[in-house]
Amino acid sequence: MASTLRLHGLTVLYHPDLDRIGERTALDGLVGGREVLLSRHVPELAAPGAELCRPLADVRLSRRPIVLRRNRGGVTIDRRHSRTRLVVDGQEVETQVSVPGEDLVDGVVLLLGGRIVLLLHLLDPVADTETPKFSMVGDSPAMAQLRRDVVRTADLRIPILLRGESGTGKELVARAIHDAGPRRQKPFVAVNMAALPPSLAAAELFGAERGAYTGADRRRAGHFERAHGGTLFLDEVGETPVEVQALLLRTLETGEVQPVGGGKANRLDVRILSATDADLESAIDAKRFRGPLLHRLGGYVLRLPPLRQRREDFGRLFVFFLRRELESLGKSHLLRPRPRPWLPASLVARLAAWYWPGNVRQLANVVRQLVIANRDADPATRFDEIEGLLSTTSSLSSTVVPQIPRRQAAELRESDVVAALRAHRFRPSAAADALGIPRSSIYDLMGRIPGLRKASELTREEIDEAHDRVGPSLESVAAELEVSLRALRRRLGQLEP
């Protein structure tokens, strides 16, 4: 399966005119080795799928352009002849800076003139404008693929397992699958399995007959019965009590629900969606989760991307939550276009470059804190809590990685190296920086670890099989095969006939 061509591009993360956020342009000139100019008047940008193109057009940007040049897979940003102040991932640039190609995968945040925030990154030149949005904010390739997966699975009866980090929006996706399918007029019942008391979990799920336990003075309908004809969403399914897992597996296998306390088993028509941020495979090894239950729940698996892997969506997400919070306080007028915006672009740039371990949920909470702290300020001035947040954890970008004490490669365990590689999506240089070892050492360590393979060793069949398991997203395939995205793209190019 051939990879989708991705070009260098710019996406607007913040602009004094908030309607401009999300506009983008592909920097086609970099493909041919030509220079690309960035100024008040060039390039022209457009919203995905829109025909209207327009320049950034802000008076704080100089007419004399910043120059972008291709540099060994990366990009050199040269501002020596421009008067526009430039900050790249938190570092002010006086002359020029080189951005490695691997940093463009997640994107590099540019602050122009203290007014406009752009993301320099790799983008798909063709936007998906046909698939419904399903209330999912963002047009990144990962989100476009996720929406296509919703359409692809909505009319099926098989169970769907949503996997992703905490805060990535798994319940939102589950609701979208329900609303897009033939059960949309029937109940959607969401259950947090981690919140079920172990002693009552079975009764909560499957119902209970009168007298089944102390206090059961009447028959009790369970969540399965309440969801009859519709969808039952089992959130945090990895936290299901061990004693309940066998009952849940039996229900999935037979389609029948056996209430606690006996009684007749009821055959119910329920579509099962489940979600987890847990490592279920490790839980199976530790005897905390039943392997057959995972196979039943995962009739099809959808993987939700973390926010740091869809950074081009940050601007729209940020403003979505900002508008929602201000409207709830009757303060939406603060976001109207004005010479001095209510919120400084420099803060948005710092937030855009941050790691966001709590993903979209954490972003929503931070925006709420920001709005409440500044509800009576014009412009906003109180950023104490936000500054504290940013000072404790760094961005993923290599340009702002904190200084880590240097270590000897011999001191590291294999598990340390593997954990660092996985945390940095198998980008060797980023893993080496995180481990505090020379980048030249990481390749030697990787070669000594059993099970780790180079992308250059992969066959076409192995890559196609991974595509079949996780879907068409090349990022998901790289994660499945445990190689870097860049190396996988290179290998696909080698395998082209």
Describe this structure in words.
- The protein is an alpha+beta fold and 497 residues long.
- It has three domains: 7-127 and 309-392, Sandwich (Tumour Suppressor Smad4); 141-212 and 219-303, Rossmann fold, CATH 3.40.50; 409-495, no CATH class.
- Helices cover 34% and strands 15% of the residues.
- The protein contains 18 helices and 17 strands.
- The protein has helices at residues 103-106, 141-153, 170-180, 201-206, 223-226, 242-254, 280-285, 291-297, 314-328, 345-352, 359-373, 384-392, 414-423, 428-435, 439-448, 460-470, 474-481, 485-495; strands at residues 7-14, 24-26, 36-38, 66-71, 74-78, 86-88, 91-92, 96-99, 108-112, 116-123, 160-163, 188-192, 231-235, 256-257, 266-267, 271-276, 300-303.
- A six-stranded antiparallel sheet has the order 2-1-10-9-6-7. Strands 12-13-16-11-17 form a five-stranded parallel sheet.
- Helix 2 crosses helix 3 (170-180) and helix 9 (314-328) packs across helix 11.
- The model is unreliable at 393-406 (pLDDT under 50).
In quaternary terms, these chains amount to single chain
Number of domains: 3
Question: In percent, how much strand structure appears in the residues?
Answer: 15-25%
Shape call: globular
Give the N-to-C terminal Cα separation.
12 Å
H/I helix tally: 18
Number of strands: 17
Largest sheet, order of strands side by side? 2-1-10-9-6-7
**CATH topology-level name of the largest domain:** Tumour Suppressor Smad4
For the record, the CATH architecture of the largest domain stands as Sandwich
